[in-house]
Amino acid sequence: MSNLPHGFRYRLWRELGPGNVIVEPEQLRVYECDGLTGHRAVPELVVLPGSTEEVQTVVRACHEAGVPFVARGAGTGLSGGATPLAGGVVVSLARMNRILEIDLESQRVVVEPGVANLDVTNAVAVAGFFYAPDPSSQQVCTIGGNVAENSGGAHCLKHGFTVHHVTGLTLVLPDGEVVELGGKALDPEGPDLLGVVVGSEGTLGIVTRVTLRIVRRPESVCTLLAGFESTDMAGAAVSGIVAAGIQPAAIEMMDRLTIEAAELAVAPGYPTGAGAVLIVELDGVTEQVEKDTTEVEAICAAQGAFEVRSAVDDAARALLWRGRKSAFAAMGRVATDYYVQDGVVPRTRLPEVLRTIDELSEAYGLRVGNVFHAGDGNLHPLVLYDAEQGETERARALAEAILDACLDAGGSLTGEHGVGMDKACSMPRMFSERDLGVFARLRSSFDPDGLCNPGKVIPTPRLCGEVPGPYRIHPLERIGVAERL
Ligand SMILES: Cc1cc2nc3c(=O)[nH]c(=O)nc-3n(C[C@H](O)[C@H](O)[C@H](O)COP(=O)(O)OP(=O)(O)OC[C@H]3O[C@@H](n4cnc5c(N)ncnc54)[C@H](O)[C@@H]3O)c2cc1C
Fold it and tell me: Which of 178, 140, 148, 13 is nearest to 70 (CA)?
């Protein structure tokens, strides 16, 4: 039985065409979750608009009828951002997947939001450019999703995150108005609304066009692999590299469990028996890369690396990266289920926090693999469990304990996967009531009716334990103890 107002489906069916409105229950189930598969909520309707005008039509219809909606890219998000928690409409941007303009002179590419991240680089590679933010999911995740999550990737250490590569946006506001933010130039006048929207996790409107900055391929690239006996030793090497004033494009670390899983999955040829490997990529002018490579090799050796080697050609480099980029999926080789945590710690605290994670893993009796952006201090502990053995709750508790350890070390809740619904309840651990109030007021200035991706990022009401589905008034809210913002 649909909760949508009478005539709502027909209106969208008429405006978008029958092929672009999904109503069949078994097809709707495809959209019930993103990469955080533990939480599911089936939408009432899925629409596939093909243009900004069609997105505007959908959003206007939702606004007029008071129906909640959520944008969806490829659904690879790991924090439940695209899960239709409050029912309503999923707006899939899958059909809006065209590269609209390549302006090499200005080093800009204009795309629709459904373009896959890697397709931007593929489109400009022949001219000697690339799009720098490179999430491991880059073959499928979309630019719209990247903008919403301010996504990162291995090469963001040197080149910056999505927010540093978006210069303009077209945004359909939650009442259906279309606004242009920025353009091809940097630093538009007025408040930094572009900076507000990038990373807002789909809560301020639907992005329908994005202007991206592309960068020139460096003259020279060197990718080094170093094998260590322990993560402590590898962590000391990371600190040594940074302290030497070297600026690698990427420094990634994998521990024993993730190395073994990656070997089983894609055989990248990591050193046998290593307790940790570092992948360090240096890029720039040839002389500098050669000098830095020698120095990084020496630092790794001084910290006890038992093997250090460089990729000899592009194929060898691609193989080293394939091991790293397939590490999450490779966990399927060693466990039936896993939960990815995404905490950040100050880089200098990495060895200590990794030791705490080991202790917690032992205390909870569950294995944890670590694969992460070491240069950024952005950890991705992979908590392995077996749902059929009833380990889900224990895994969740362990993941939360890991997050607490990150916060205790002066870190933060999320480096790149977002808060979504997954960590909304943890927000008060990092932000004060006042901070949360400011976030809520900012959000409601874009979306006073609370229809755009409700139930995400800011706890609403400021309590946990909300049940997916249509909004139900909480008992504490009813008696005036808590408020919904
Ligand atoms: C194997 C794997 C590896 C990953 N590696 C990384 C990594 O290295 N770095 C990283 O940062 N992330 C990583 N992720 C997480 C995920 O890929 C990113 O968050 C990505 O940006 C999500 O893109 P998407 O198109 O799948 O978005 P979705 O999951 O569909 O949506 C994500 C959020 O964006 C919103 N959204 C989507 N499109 C729009 C739009 N047009 N307008 C407004 N809001 C929109 C949604 O409402 C939702 O809140 C990984 C995920 C997986 C499964």
Answer: 148
- Please identify, by atom number, the ligand 1 atom nearest to the C-alpha of residue 34: 29
**pLDDT tens digit sequence for 99-109:** 999 999 999 99
**Whose CA is closest to atom 11 on ligand 1?**
151
Would the pLDDT of 482 be above 90?
A: no
Q: Which of 46, 78, 197, 443 to mutate to test the pocket of ligand 1 (most atoms within 8 A of CB)?
A: 78
- What is the rounded CA–CA span in Å between residue 345 and residue 414? 10
Q: What is the mean pLDDT of the chain?
A: 92
Residue 470, preceding bond cis, omega within 30 degrees?
no
- Could you tell me the pTM of the whole model? 0.91
Q: What is the pLDDT of residues 203-242, one digit of tens each?
A: 999 999 999 999 999 999 999 999 999 999 999 999 999 9
Q: Tell me, what's the pLDDT at 423?
A: 92
Confidence class for position 480, pLDDT limits 50, 70, 90 = low
Q: Whose CA is nearest to atom 53 of ligand 1?
A: 76
pLDDT at 466: 44
Which atom of ligand 1 sits closest to the CA of residue 205? 43
Please tell me the distance from the alpha carbon of residue 69 to that of residue 63, in angstroms, as a whole number.
9
The reply to whether ligand 1 has any atom less than 6 angstroms from the CB of 34 is: yes
Q: Please state, in angstroms and as integers, the Cα–Cα distance from residue 81 to each residue in 91, 103, 443, 464, following that order.
A: 13, 32, 16, 16
CA atoms lying within 13 Å on the CB side of residue 369: 27
